[in-house]
Amino acid sequence: MNKKSNNLLGGALQGGTSIENKTGSWRTERPVWDKKKCIQCMKCYIFCPENCILAIKKNKSIQRGETDLDFCKGCGICAEVCPTKAITMQKENDFDISFLPQTSKKAINPKLSKSKKFNKINKLKKK
To answer: Which of 31, 86, 90, 100 has the most Cβ atoms closer than 10 angstroms to its Cβ?
Structure first.
């Protein structure tokens, strides 16, 4: 392969790429930060792959700020690396589905809904 080729495939992307796109609407869990347990080690800030944990300059030191949930994917890395368990992952209660296309009942194929697969699903729902 030519070393000067600009048509390379594969590779890794730099962290923080979701800054261009809000990704928080499809997250299933969100990090919850307990300020009282936090020792300001900044491991969560360092390891966050999307740079959504804010760092605040206070006096002459840098301290952890809130999490920008618009860009957080809910991966849980921040909670995993926290030595004092000041960050826990909690399930999202409300999902924003407003971006999904709206359909009417007419969009459902009546032949498909009578198939064996759908009958099995309907039986499971009734249990």
So the answer is: 31
Helix (H) or strand (E) holding 30: strand 29-33
- Looking at residue 1, what is its pLDDT? 45
- Element housing 75 (H / E): none
Distance CA 80, CA 86 (A): 10
Could you tell me if 39 and 61 are in contact, meaning their C-beta atoms sit under 8 angstroms apart?
no
Q: What is the pLDDT of residue 81?
A: 96
Here the tokens at position 73 are 């994917």
Rounded to two decimals, the pTM is 0.57
Query: Which domains are seen in the chain, by residue range?
Result: 17-93 (3.30.70.20)
Range list of H helices, the chain: 43-47, 77-81, 110-113, 116-126
Q: How far apart are CA 22 and CA 112, in angstroms?
A: 35
Q: Tokens 């080729």 correspond to what residue?
A: 5
